[in-house]
Amino acid sequence: MILRTLLLCFFLLMQNMAIAGDRVPVNSQLGRIAIKIPAGLNGPDRLFPNKGTELLVFYSQKESPPTLLQLTQVLIPAAPLEVDEKTKQEAAAHFLTGFLQTFSQNVQEWKRSPIDKLRLGQYAAVRATWTGNFHGLPTTGTMYMLVLGKESYCFHTFGQMDLPNPLLQSSIRAIEALHVER
Predict the structure, then answer these.
(1) What CATH code would you report for 26-180?
(2) Of 128, 49, 67, 50, which is closest to residue 94 (Cα–Cα)?
C-alpha cells in the first residue's frame, strides 16, 4: 500500500513537472536566428521541404484550433554576399508577397495589410498581417521576412481571431525581439 501511494505521488509529481515545463519559454536557433519561443508552444517539428530550406513549427495543443509559430530559413546560393540594406529590404518585400500569395490559397475571405518596414535583430525587414477563414475558422496572422545575404528567413504566426489569443501576441513579440548572430 505504501509503495502504491509512493508511486502515485511520483506519477503526479512527474505529471505536474511536465505541465510546468510547458509554461517555460524555450530558446530556439535556426541558422543565425536566435528566438525565445513563448511558453505554451510545443515543438519544434523540424522539416526540410526542399534542398536549402529548413522549417521549424511550434504549436499549441490546448486551443482548438492551435496557435502556430513557423520559422523558415531559405538558403539562396546565387545571392550576392554584399548587398545594401535597401536592396535587402526590397528583396524581403518581394519574397514576403510570394509567401503570402502561396499561403492565401488555403484561406477564404483573405485580406492583408500593406507591407510594413521594420527592424528585426537590428536588420531591415518587412511584415504584413492577414485575416480570413482558415479551415472554416476566423484566423489572423502576421508574417515577417528578413534577408541576410544568402540567407532569407520567414517568420509566420497565426491563430484563431474571434477569441482573445495571448499566445499569438506572445509569438509576435518573440519574433520582434529575435536576435541575429553575426
Answers:
(1) 3.40.1000.10
(2) 128
> Measured between alpha carbons, how far is 70 from 49 in angstroms, rounded to an integer?
13
**Rounded to two decimals, what is the model's pTM?**
0.83
Task: Give tens-digit pLDDT for 88-109.
Answer: 999 999 999 999 999 999 999 9
pLDDT in tens, 123-152: 999 999 999 999 889 999 999 999 998 899
Amino acid present at 81: L
Say how far apart CA 13 and CA 131 lie, in whole Å: 41
Q: For residues 62 and 65, what is the distance between their CA atoms, to the nearest angstrom?
A: 9
Q: Which three cell numbers stand for residue 147?
A: 534577408
* In the chain, domain spans: 26-180
Q: Which set of grid coordinates corresponds to residue 160? A: 484563431
